[in-house]
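Write out this protein's structure.
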Amino acid sequence: MNEKVKAIPPSGIRKFFDMVSEMKDVVSLGVGEPDFVTPWHIREGSIYALEKGHTSYTSNKGMKELREEIAKYAAETFNAPYDPNNILVTVGVSEAFDLALRALLNPNDEVIIPEPCYVSYKPLSYLCNAKPVVIGTKEEDEFELRAEDIEEAITRKTKAIVLNYPNNPTGATLSKKRMNEIANTILQNKIWLISDEIYSELTYDGSHTSFASSEEMRKRMIFLHGFSKAFAMTGFRIGYAAGPEETISLMTKIHQYSMLCAPTMGQMAAIEALRKGKEEMLKMKEEYDQRRKLIVKGLNKIGLNCFMPKGAFYAFPSIKSTGLSSEMFCEELLKKEKVATVPGNAFGRSGEGFIRCSYAASIDEINTALERIEKFINNM
């Protein structure tokens, strides 16, 4: 068996999902996906594709019609003009990220990964025979990355940095000042940026600014996005990557051999989402915003210090005051009060002392979870 794969630990998130699956009456704040059903007209786009018999392969890069809509959306929403030929439609952003790493990295290259971070970033870098170099972000900075920390981590072997803002698991965003400083560091050191902006539409305080809005940055970055979060389309598995022609060509070559193309019915649904899905997306965003304020206020009232996240749909409260580790807190909370959360250390060492609470749950579920968490803490 492959020794590298054997050495990779299983996802820290899966452990808790497996425990939840064996219990009844659990209130889950653990799942990182919208609780909304995909809007009907988007589902209908997929049904229409089936009815018309659009069930064959598409071109490797994805349907031209979809790539044109993505280019239009990126230009209008993110001020990021991309040629449709430099856009690759993938099976979710996860595949796009994997392709970006495999296209960019050679053995022993270093890739900088700020933590806490999404669980797949380090393992997939490791599988490329590259070396993940971790930077810890801090609660006092509201988990914003600092350019000086990147500068310290760069060596002659550094090939790329992975950024995910708005961030999973913290909900952090980057200020424009920090963005500019980070962009300057990337350009000066001539490294690549892989920018995972899947939560960009779910930015609550101000609007999201993409690194791809800079012409200079577009030459040194791969922009990753998709439909799972903002459009509540996780199961459709449609993501995309945009970048320089040579990079997208290399990613497409890998995609040709490994995946062939993204699901046709999902691509048809994505076209409908881009053309007519903004109104429903904004309604979902409004609800997330209400839930965000509710859960953060409740967590702070209980005594779990929590900064106000500015994006995504996660709160990342500190549980250090309880004296428990992140894993112990989550396990005991699940066993005693049937509330599922995710330990912060599942997202890297700098996540220890925190838990991730998804507020992609109903108001009633959030209120019930807060009551149970308070009871759990009071009975410690």
